Amino acid sequence: MDQHNQESHAAVEVSPTRRAFYIGFINGVMGLIGLALAAPAAIYLLFPPKLRKEAEWVETADLSTIPAGTPTEIAFERKRVDGWKVTTEKATAWVVRKPDNDVVAFTPQCTHLGCAYHWDDASHTFVCPCHTSVFSMDGKVISGPAPRPLDRYLTKVEAGKLEIGPVIAHA
Amino acid sequence: MRPVVDWLEHRTGIESAIKSFLYEDIPASAGWHQIIGSMAVFFFIIQVFTGSLLAFNYAPTPGEAYNSVKYIMTDLTGGPLIRGLHHWGASMMLIIVVLHMIQVFIYGAYKKPREATWMVGVTLLLITLGFGLTGYLLPWDNRAYWGTVVTTQIASQAPIAGPYLLRLLGSQGSVGNVTFSRFYALHTVLLPPLTMILIGIHIYLVRKHGVAAAVGDTAPKRKFFPEQVFKDTVGVAVAFIILFIMAIVAKVPLERLADPTDTAYIPRPEWYFLFLFQTLKFFRGPLETVGSVVLPGVAVLTLFLIPFIDRGPMMRLGKRTFAISLVVLAAIAWTGLTTAAVVTTPKNQESAEDTETPATETPEAAAPAPASSNATAAAPSTAATPTPNPQSLTPAAPSATPGPAWQRLTAEELAGLGLFKKQGCTGCHPVGGKNGIGPNLTKMPKEHRNVAWMVPHFKNPSQVVPGSMMPPVDLSAADLNALALFVLTITPQNEAALLATPDFATQGALVYQMNHCNACHQIGGVGSTLGPALDGVGLRHDRAWLEKHFADPASVSKDSIMPPYKFSPMDLDAICKYLLQLPKRA
Fold first, then answer.
1. Of the four listed, A33, A128, B304, B401, which is most buried by Cβ atoms within 10 Å?
2. What is the tens place of the pLDDT at every residue in B452-508?
3. Sign of the C-alpha dihedral, residues B228, B230, B233, B234?
């Protein structure tokens, strides 16, 4: 401990082995504490919240009110778990009823960047106003930057009423 | 790496700045007793870190704060740990700050030229207490609410300044939105940067005057790094391990939602304020301000002025007997007052609720069997509670043995139970002693225990109970009445059993109500006697008879004047099962 006395510093220096031990200890312990804080923080921020409720089926329009062969926008109310709240919000879907009464309900967002697209009667396509993605009546991409066909809701028809369920993202 | 460091050093001088900080000269007599200051800084960093994480998922309004804390505690992985670290970290930080002050005090390290360092330190202690006080309100549970009511009332007693303080805290009239926002702003916006600035000044002053050496320490100085930093790190590690274990093992309380109408609640401050709370009990009437304002004020002022009161030269620790006895006396007084406060605290109903023990089950609640029969499938299952299997559809058990709890309800009350479940009331008012967002319905104050109070409350909750988050119940007048009648029947003893009522019974009662069967019939002595009473009807008739009777009463009962009833298959099933299970009246 005292052989370092004559060094330029007037202060006492510890021996090199002790010094190495101290520094190793400080770095090690601080590293562990950092990890013990960072890991729970990452889990806390990145893990999805435990879902309290599955998405429900919502009864929407009478199937007979939807004209066959023309996409129709329908509005309905659905419940959504939003953080600490379950909110009831207005949602819409573009519903296509085929002549054989088969029904497809598209989510109203373009698969490119989420803009609301609309049905263009003249061109007989779904057109997105943002980046000119164009989809056919069955949701397939005709042109534009959209990476995948339109997403759909699960649907079922019960007692003549169209019921809309959770969204199934197009693979 | 080296070139990067060199570049940074050349442009910013950061490396030499860190080095000059770490290679500070400290006296040879410095050592383990001086690690506490670093530990305090470490805990402040932990609080900032965990507090920021909590803020990411916290909604700072009285309407949503509680729900978001609950969300952190139940829905988020790691949420309870983060909140635990913040909650227990606050207590530990205060302990460490106080220990730091005691160390400086008994060593007399506040003496000339370190008076300013001491005074900044006392300010930091007060700010730490301020963090505790303001953070206490933020979960917005009963504990938070009532604790703050008492605190702000104490502030209001301050001579002259009282009313202004109350206005400043936004607590005129009552603790609500304004107080909440101000406490939140203090806790997260104002105090943290203020603390950082003061810690900076505090450390700057420590560096300016150097770490206080023991009397007669003329040995060559040593470097702060790495030996003293090693000792600091050991202290930090030990404290952190304790904190981490606390955060995992000890449950952070979250009582039920703040309820300004809860007259049964016994407010208590956080443990470190209990001594002040207890002191208040010794002062009554006009002397009350002595305990609430004057004494604490004098104590704080004395603390500030200590360097000017004790101006003698530094002395050996062995000679600081007066200072040491003062600390011992203060510790004894603090412990005595705190113990007295703890001992005299009546057990809060809340704490019993907090333990989450299931409500004592009444025998009838123990009925549920694994749902296997398809009889239950026919009944609409809207409730989240497990549906007990209706044992059989044979006539009800003789009334001598006590039947299920629902059999003791009138049809209207039972219909109310059906509405209670359908409206999702249990979402906020859970049973079994669990904490919910809404008040525990078995503990309603007496003045609310009547239909006249309850029905307007259902229609427009926030108008009857200001600040209530309960959504209005949108039902017909008759249904609201039934719902109120049911709520009045809930007791801690029967709530679990009632909520376990099978759906056929509630549904059947709803059908019974909807069709005004009571206009001619009686159940349990309630209703008209125009038609036969329906108690024990299952002993007289079977299901097939009942169904025929509903379709065409005259076909099975010649002189019946009852009109035919055409129910939907579901309703028919429910009302038949319900009626067949009605016990014979004693």
1. A128
2. 788 888 888 877 777 777 888 888 888 888 888 888 888 877 877 788 888 888 888
3. negative
For residue A101, the number of C-alpha atoms closer than 13 Å in the C-beta half-sphere is 9
Candidates B75, B85, B220; nearest CB to A12 = B220
pTM: 0.67
Tell the CATH topology of A58-168.
Rieske Iron-sulfur Protein (2.102.10)
For tokens 């109903």, name the residue.
B349
* Cis amide prior to B226 (ω within 30 degrees): yes
Answer whether A38 touches B (CB < 8 Å): no
Q: What are phi and psi of A122, to 5 degrees?
A: -60, -50
Burial readout B455-466 (b: 16 or more C-beta within 10 A, e: otherwise): bebbeebeebbe
A113 vs B: CB within 8 A: no
Residue A92: which residues within 8 A CB-CB, separation 6 or more? A73, A74, A75, A76, A108
CB B367 within 8 A of CB B404: yes
Burial of residue B391, with CB atoms counted within 10 A of its CB: 0-12 exposed, 13-18 middle, 19 or more buried? middle
Greatest Cα pair distance, chain B, in angstroms, is: 118
CATH architecture of B28-261+285-313: Up-down Bundle (1.20)
Q: Which of A91, A161, A92, A170 is nearest to A138 (CA)?
A: A170
The structure tokens listed for B148 are: 């703050």
- From the list A33, A166, A164, A142, the residue with the least C-alpha distance to A94 is A164
Question: In the A/B pair of chains, how many CB contacts fall below 8 A?
Answer: 91
Domain ranges of chain B: 28-261+285-313, 378-580
Quote ipTM for the complex: 0.80
Q: Could you tell me if B143 and B262 are in contact, meaning their C-beta atoms sit under 8 angstroms apart?
A: no
Q: Of B153, B174, B175, B171, nearest to B289 (Cα)?
A: B153
Prior bond to A71 cis, omega within 30? no
